[in-house]
Amino acid sequence: MFLQQLLNGLTTGSAYALIALGYTMIYGILGLINFAQGEIYMCGAFVAVLLLASGQVSFYLAFAAGMAAAALLGLALERIAFRPLRGTHPLVPLISAIGASIFLQSLALLLFGPNDRAFPMQFTFQTISLAGLPVSTLQGAILGAALLFMALLVAFVRYTRYGKAIVACALDRDTARLMGINVDRMVALTFLIGSALSGAAGVMMAIYYNATYPRMGLLPGLKAFSAAILGGVGNIPGAILGGLVLGIAESLGAAYISSGYKDAVAFVILILVLLLRPQGILAGWQRH
Amino acid sequence: MAAYFLHLAILAGIYIILTISLNLIIGYAGQVSLGHAAFYGIGAYTSALVSVYWHFPFPLALTAAVLTTAVCGLALGLPTLRLREDYLAIVTLGFGVIVDMVALNLEITGGPDGIVGIPAPIILGLSFRSQPRYLGLVVLCVLSVLGLTYRLVQSYHGRALRAIRDHEVTAQVMGINTPAYKIAVFTLAAALAGLAGVLYAHYISFINPESFGLHTSILALCMVVLGGMGSLAGSIVGALILSVLPELLRRFHAYQDLLYGALLVGLLIWRPEGIMGRGNMSLKFLQKE
Amino acid sequence: MLKLTSVQAGYGRLPVLKGISLHVRQGEVVCLIGGNGAGKTTTLKAIAGLLPIRKGQVEFAGRDLTRLPPEQIVRRGLALVPEGRRVFATLSVTANLELGAFHRQDKKEVRQDLEEMLARFPLLKERAHQPAGTLSGGEQQMLAIARALMARPRLLMLDEPSMGLAPRIVAQVYDILKELQIVGVTLLLIEQNARAALKLADRGYVMETGRIILDGAAADLREDPEVQRAYLGKGYQEVWE
Question: Which residue ranges form the domains of chain A, and what is each CATH number?
Fold first, then answer.
């Protein structure tokens, strides 16, 4: 029972971690929170579901298309809702992002209606026994894919030229420009990557819960934000750890405290972190 | 027809209070609350509960409701307002979701059905059941709130608050206790939103969680931005336009949120100062560097 | 090679440079000296594109740079070692050096340059995989210079390379600048430490409140009584004695 809850928590937590990475990277480079991250997640899920429902494409293609659509939406958001507002008080892009979030949510509502859509799955999943623990292969697949994406991101940031350039922009924008780095392009790249990860999370959760609907991004967005804060905003390993911890806490909370208030767990954690350790759990640890 | 206009006028008055309270947070603390509807809802629910179950007289119910929302504002502001501007937005958004969840799950709040039979206010033996009288009450409240906020803007404290908003570090160096000021403003704003909720509950006489969701928070935000962030006059204009317009455009109800979202983004790009421009607590920060 | 014609620039509404004209020839070492707030850093920032130029013109190797953004200017062969070193603290020394060559497409030669740079700065080689933020001030200054050299600049600008460093370390930094001078790198250097700068430089300009008030061969400037009094700390001795 406990291990089962732990696994459930890790599965949803991996989705929170993927969205939290988007928050954290965008925060790192622009110093602001992209409020519409949850809608990007929703967009990824819808595109994959609609493509699969059309019966024309394979699962993998639909998954990739969901990520691509989310990435494009992220790019568009950066262009429309953030870039024109650079240099203003941080409140201004924040409100603009809130507006974008509402706009996208209601657009999805108008286009697709309020009802849940099932995920047209082409595979069947079983429950296998792993060391005496019943594990669903679906959970295993989701967790595996999420960890793969995270590893790819970490490798990208650490070992590639563009990854290092993004970090440089986040650390010191003017000096990065002196190196010949085009900051606008790096910001766009960050939105692209962060949004693609959120889109991937959206598709995975659309499969996991078998439900895709316009407001599906609201709570995961909020929780992923809490995860990003938990790990320390701007901190990539922190976002991953924060997401996983949050998913587990939520799953255990629902099992042992009250399932009705499952969604409140993340929020309580958020408040506690802000009160006790606003710099995040990994602060001071990461650099040494 | 007259009844309908009175109805619109009363709702507009309530929204003016809600908008002013949100504008205080934006214009003074330089922060944004996305759970403003939650404070509005807490005010409405508290007053409704104590009136229906414990038969509190209206002035006492009103006091209880305003105090409750103030305490909630304080509890939420304390951990958050010391930190970056964006944290309050997310924390209040989460708070809104939780309040919604609690209202839907608790037995005493009636779940999705809400609370019915909220009595019309009786103050000193005078009943405010009729619409014209209720409008009078609302107008009185609006004027008091305007008077209060105007005084605040003009006072020493108002100047301290403007200093914080325009340059927090400098204000700190000058010895202004910035977190305390921000928390005080946020608490006051929560209390005023609670007042708006009380007025709403006792007018409509029936409330459920639907009226206090994210949609309402966003609506209030749109009113502030449309009228002009930091402008008291703007709050009135923004609230009037956005509370009357949807009633006139009922047919396009489905497109309302779409419009609000686009309105927010568009205004901030093309006219960040809103309709009324820079008012008496106007924001220097709207200008680009 | 580099030519500024009545350049005006500033922060916000505040004008700092009130018409600066100067030039640097190929292979020359030129220094710009002056007190605090004279506009030295502003001049370099304006050349590098970090500050918009309101009036006047910046020409480099016969091309107009006046309105170009910094990321384009470094591509034209003009690199700046910024004031306060500004190394990327959480990135490794190697990563910092690689970023210096960010715009270069010749990957193989970048590799070679990296090796060469580590060979030239043995201190950096020892710490190649350490985060740059853990380096001492002098090591960070070396890194900042090496990073700028990774761009293979035709002209290197340095903003107060001796700031905040112990005299012994300053001497090391200047040894390196001397080596660069010998191999023919063109340098534009600004300093409050006028003594060291004028010793290295071929020519110098003296700035005061946004204007150039004096220019000439470095040797002449060293002998100029005004410069000696104001920037070299000479004269006081005689007054006191």
Answer: 2-115+133-276 (1.10.3470)
Kindly list the residues from chain C whose CB atom is less than 8 angstroms away from the CB atom of residue A287: 90, 131, 133
Type of residue found at C153: P
Report d(CA C97, CA A3) in Å as an integer.
Answer: 47
Is the pLDDT reported for residue B88 higher than 90? no
Are the Cβ atoms of B258 and A103 closer than 8 angstroms? yes
Among C29, C83, C18, C89, smallest CA distance to C55 is for: C18
- In a 13 Å sphere around the CA of C27, the CA atoms on its Cβ side amount to 3
**ipTM score:** 0.89
- Which residue in this structure is represented by tokens 């989705």? A15
| C-alpha dihedral sign at C50, C55, C60, C64 | positive
Q: In angstroms, how far is CA B84 from the centroid of its own chain?
A: 22
A235 contacts in chain C (CB < 8 Å): none
Could you give the CA distance from residue B277 to residue B281 in angstroms, rounded to a whole number? Answer: 11
- Per DSSP, C164 falls in state T
Residue B288 has pLDDT above 50, yes or no: no
What is the total count of domains within chain C? 1
CA distance C102 to C112: 14
Nearest partner of B24 among B168, B234, B245, judged by Cα = B234
Q: Kindly state the tokens that stand for B64.
A: 């209880």
Q: Which residues of chain C have a CB within 8 Å of the CB of A176?
A: 99
> What is the b/e burial string over B226-256, where b = at least 16 CB atoms within 10 angstroms of the residue's CB?
bbbbbbbebbbbbbbbbbbeeeeeeeeeeeb
Structure tokens at C27: 């292979």
- CB pairs < 8 Å spanning A and C: 64
What's the rounded Cα separation, in Å, for the pair C170 and C141? 10
Chain position carrying tokens 């455009």: B249
Please name which of A237, A217, A256 lies closest in space to residue A35, comparing C-alpha atoms.
A217
Under 8 Å between Cβ of A120 and A210 = no
Q: How far is the C-alpha of B249 from the C-alpha of B255, rounded, in Å?
A: 10
Give the CA distances from residue A236 to residues A33, A193, B44, B274, in Å, rounded to whole numbers and listed in that order. Answer: 15, 13, 42, 38
Could you identify the residue written with the tokens 């965008």?
A26
Residue C238 pLDDT exceeds 60 = no
Closest residue in B to A97 (Cα–Cα): B265
- How far apart are the C-alpha atoms of C43 and C36, rounded to whole Å? 13
For B263, name the nearest residue in chain A, comparing CA atoms only: A99
d(CA C128, CA C130): 6
Tokens describing residue A94 = 């924040």
Q: How remote is the C-alpha of B30 from its chain's centroid?
A: 16
Q: Is residue C212 part of a domain?
A: yes
Instruction: Supply the pLDDT for residue C236.
Output: 53
Looking at per-residue pLDDT, the higher value among B256 and A74 belongs to: A74
C118 inside domain: no
B255 inside 8 A of chain A by CB: yes
Please choose, from the candidates A168, A198, A197, A200, the residue with its C-alpha nearest in 3D space to the C-alpha of residue A185: A168
pLDDT at position B287 is 43
CATH of the domain at C209: 3.40.50.300
Cα distance between residue A151 and residue A171, in whole Å: 22
Structural domain boundaries, residue C232:
2-86+153-240
pTM for the model stands at: 0.88
Beta strands at C29-34 and C186-191: parallel, antiparallel or unpaired: parallel
Q: Are C148 and C100 in contact (CB under 8 A)?
A: yes
By the 8 A CB rule, do C206 and C34 touch?
A: yes
* CB contact residues (below 8 A), chain A span 221-240, against chain B: 222, 225-226, 229
Instruction: For residues C10 and A46, give the distance between their C-alpha atoms in angstroms, rounded to a whole number.
Output: 50
Q: Examine residue C37 and state whether it is found in any structural domain, yes or no.
A: yes
| Integer angstrom CA distances of residue A30 from A93, A207, A280, C112, C188 | 11, 32, 19, 34, 33
Domain for residue C140, yes or no?
no
pLDDT tens for each residue of B195-234: 999 999 999 989 988 888 888 898 899 999 898 888 888 8
